[in-house]
Amino acid sequence: MNKGYTFDAFIEGANNQFAKSASMTIADAPGKQAFNPLIIYGGVGMGKTHLLHAIGNQILETTLAARVVMATSEKFTLDFVNGLRKNQTVEFARQYRRADVLLIDDIQFFRGKEQTQEQFFHTFNELYQSGKQIVLTADRFPGEMQGLQDRLLSRFQSGLSVDVQPPDFEVRVAILMDKAERNGVDLPYDIIEFIATHMKGNIRDLEGTIIRLLARSSLMNQDIDHKLVHEVVKERLGKKPLADLSIEEVVRKVSNVSRVGEKDIVGKSRKKEIVEARQVAMYLCRDLLSMSLNNIGLYFGGRDHTTVIHAISRIGEKQEEDKRLEKMIEGLNQELSFPGI
User: Fold this and answer.
1) pLDDT band for position 67 (50/70/90)?
2) Is it true that the peptide bond before 167 is cis, omega within 30 degrees of 0?
């Protein structure tokens, strides 16, 4: 187990408070609660594995005689396959079924592995009937899982399922401050706030951003200033517009920059400056929103897909020879994909 994954190092917020409380209760008295099995579920990088390891670490620290078995679903499967290959399935079963506490990470990867599920079912039953504690993590609520045996899902749903949600702004700030402190870097609050505002995905994204900053700073001999932070955030976000970016917003931005009215952009006029603005808007809709050619054409006055193809191709070619247009496209990309950066 990762010794760094403790309850003290787990940043608590409204998004994970219930999951942390349940995990701590289990760690204090494994097998003596009604929370058996405990299933912690949620998306990637939300802290499920951290809580799983924290449970194991605390039990080992407070109950020296406890036998804690920790494995990923892949490890469980591999151990079973090796047991089959070496005719040592009895030894495999004993390894897991002698546990006082069984911790399995990412049980969704048992999907489609019928013999592995069979082995896990019998392991689960033996431990459960002996009053041993079982804690599992998954990517979704047990009732929503597919590809697992019904009897396994029934066992999972007999216990307590707790979810961990994406961290809100305040929790993201706290995570970033903690990660920076643990790595010995003093980041001004406005930089922490900037990262927390734009990195909204999960805890791994936040931690990865701090690590990336440290790497760029030390390896490239750069100060961690606003310029470097902006560059790293852009790198980690990739070319991903905000989820609420719409075709209307694209047209509005193009209208502001080109000083061509929004109605003209989606209208029928063939004036040179209006045609260029319209083609730029079509190009960005395809590039940023990945809209279909037909849908773009429908929005821009009911034009067919060949017109849209021509517009996209034309803007792509003109950028190479027209620095003004190239700079406009870059600016619009920046404003639409990374507002505020």
Assistant:
1) very high
2) no
